[in-house]
Amino acid sequence: IESGRKVEAGEVIFSTRRKIEGVDSRSLEDAVYAFGFGPLCSYVKPFGEGHINETYAVYMPDQNGNDVPLYVLQRINVNVFKNPDQVMDNIFGVTEYLRNIIRQEGGDLDREALSYIKTKSGETYFEDDNGQPWRCLHYVANSICHQQVERPEQFYQSALSFGHFLKQLGDYPAESLYETIPQFHDTVKRLRDFKDAQRKDVKNRARKCKPEIEFVLSREDDCGVLMKQLEEGKLPLRVTHNDTKLNNILFDADTDEGLCIIDLDTIMPGLAANDFGDSIRFGASTAEEDEPDLDKVHFDINLYDIYTKGYLEMAKDVLTPAEIASLPWGARLMTLECGMRFLADYLQGDVYFKTAYPEHNLVRARTQFRLVKEMEEQFDQMNEILKKYI
Ligand code: GN1
Ligand code: MG
Predict the structure, then answer these.
(1) 247 C-alpha to center of ligand 2: Å?
(2) pTM for the full model?
(3) For residue 248, which atom of ligand 1 is closest to its CA?
(4) String of b and e for 76-115 (b: at least 16 CB within 10 Å)?
(5) How remote is the CA of residue 261 from the centroid of ligand 2, in Å?
(6) Beta bridge partners of 54
(7) ipTM score of the complex?
(8) Ligand 1 neighbourhood includes 263 CB (under 6 angstroms)
């Protein structure tokens, strides 16, 4: 963790019962105490697959003395989120708002929205001795997370969940939200940042990814398609999630129904097309985001069809005709933008996304560009499919 030996995923790294050799988990232990668990906690394990924050599950004994995960502790990445207090203000505001709706509708408060807890001293997060922020939320019991669509029904469920989320937050006061990452999905700005990274080429890696750089540069005009419509007032800003990957939803472990949207760090005013598009980028692929064998990576138009159906079933009434028409572009642009971000990070020496090996970001960029290319080839069909569900 902070120092000491590298910890394997799933391995216990902090335990109130035994000392773990070679692992310096002091900040984690301090966080466990700051949220009031102290000796109640049996142990803590790394948890989840996020690329940004450090996430741990906190285990405690149940009535039968079996250790079960009850809380999730997360160290917020301050390199990415410069103002953790603003991130947490957004999250507390949105989760309380969602919980009120669920309460009124008689839903399951423990499982349909996240619930964050404050520190013993009433703060929304704990700052450790190194100045790193930690936050804590309840673990959602009997839930699972999918890294890839295993059955099409799961993707349909995720479309319902994200469509529902957009609707639920339809009247949320957008002006009260902080912009936690400025211009997060401003694809034109992302392209500028990309070109900057390419020009500086601080790691001398540009020579290793010439075709990928060319792929981005030849799509300069595409980057502005949605931003232009926003500037011209043709597309409205809504409260959006901005990171709508399949693995940012919890599913019910028994029924596999969409249960709860997670990863709320980037809730900000944004375009509906981007939320729709990011789901397609991640979920309508036949392979994982970092599949090294490109022969396995394809855009699955049937999955696109299924997601479009579910999303519009939920959100059709609240979206304007121009917004609905913009959805296929959202898929293309979120995929291009994400690939651009991976490639820029590769060129900058992997300073943003967590990586497991030196070419990891390049491998990720390649899968995204493969998907973009196939979406471009099938763009007419994507638009035809959309029409079926209007
Ligand atoms: C990051 O944290 P995670 O893994 O849910 C990133 C998204 C990218 C995604 C790519 C704050 O999301 O924007 O689309 O990786 N989040 C941030 O997998 O940059
Ligand atoms: Mg996530």
Answers:
(1) 6
(2) 0.95
(3) 5
(4) bbeebbeebeebbbbbebbbebbbebbeeeeeeeebbbbe
(5) 10
(6) 75
(7) 0.98
(8) yes
